[in-house]
Fold this protein.
Amino acid sequence: MRATIDADRLRERFDAFNEIGATERGGVDRPSLSPENREARDRLVEWFEAADLAVTVDEMGNLFGRRPGSDDSLAPVLLGSHVDSQYNGGRYDGVLGVLGALEVVEALNDAGTGTERPVEVVAWSNEEGVRFQPDMLGSGVFAGVFDVEYAHGREDKEGNRFGDELERIGYAGTAPCEPRDLHCYLELHVEQGPYLDEGDLSIGVVEGVYGFSWANVAFEGQADHAGPTPMHLRHDALVATSDVVQSVRRIAGTGGADLVGTVGSIDAHPNSINVIPERVEFTLDFRSYDDGVVEAAVDRARREVEWAAEREDVEWEFEEIMRIDAAPFADECIEAVERAARSVVGEDDYTRIVSGAGHDASYLNEICPTGMIFVPSVGGISHVEEEYTEWEDVVRGVEVLLGAVLEKADE
Ligand code: HGY
Ligand code: MN
Ligand code: MN
């Protein structure tokens, strides 16, 4: 009997899971290592164990569930994503890849389908990077990009350390978080962009992921009274910041066809209506599939920061906190996903695509052959509560994942 996806079971799980940290506007608020994230992890452990998976938690809190293969000594096929969310984010980002992977295992169990290779499901820690920067921290340590001490030392805005928070929620595992032999890694994810929806296509066969840079920038000026301080005596950190915000738009508009640039987070101090801003801290995010384009954009932005500081006669700080190169995936995985897509949705209902969003797959791609499957995001929106994917598309995406796993796990 061929393994098939149980769409009702998947739907029930998806809805039950997204009650954890549910927001009034239909999204979820389950930031990394929050009480809601712990509840989500607990639920996954319960479901992994019910599916007879052997559960392992590593020292970064990455959560693995392993299904043995007929030759258990072979390198496993790993599939999954993440369950930490943006603050008030969407229900599909990450969750789809973890619950979809679990559904693939359940379908294999139901059909009594053995695989030669072991199959492992994973939920990576701290993919979003909103509470603890940088993002993809759990998969980054697993791939040997960051060491555990660095990762455990990362602090949120309140000064809480990642390692302490992991301890506090009870997911500071003992298994080493380090590269190990994997046959391949596959990740199902919502596209989070407009192309599948605009093209009325069901599946994206992902060829790779953009590279990107994140930086923390600060201007330090002089707080003073907004009334009696003449304009020529001011050193206004927010005026310097506004220059840079405008320059990011100019850089993104001229630095390369696919280049995108964002100032997403900004904190002004003392943030009072009648005080000239003394200090402003903000972030830069530049992305492109061409690493040289990202490099040039970051350099231009750094110069813009320096010039803005000179014009306003304020101090400046520029710290790049993460740089990840573009990740072109392995042909063997792209082609396996494409074969599965063709058999599920036919020749005309999928396209090859590159991801502007970052994913754990970028780091897995550094240690094993990696592939991704996209399903459409309605309106192309994501990282907001309104994120939405049609349920038929979700099911088709999981069916493609099942097809690719069946091929790769018996290679
Ligand atoms: O930033 C990203 O693209 C991912 O959501 N962490
Ligand atoms: Mn994601
Ligand atoms: Mn995300």
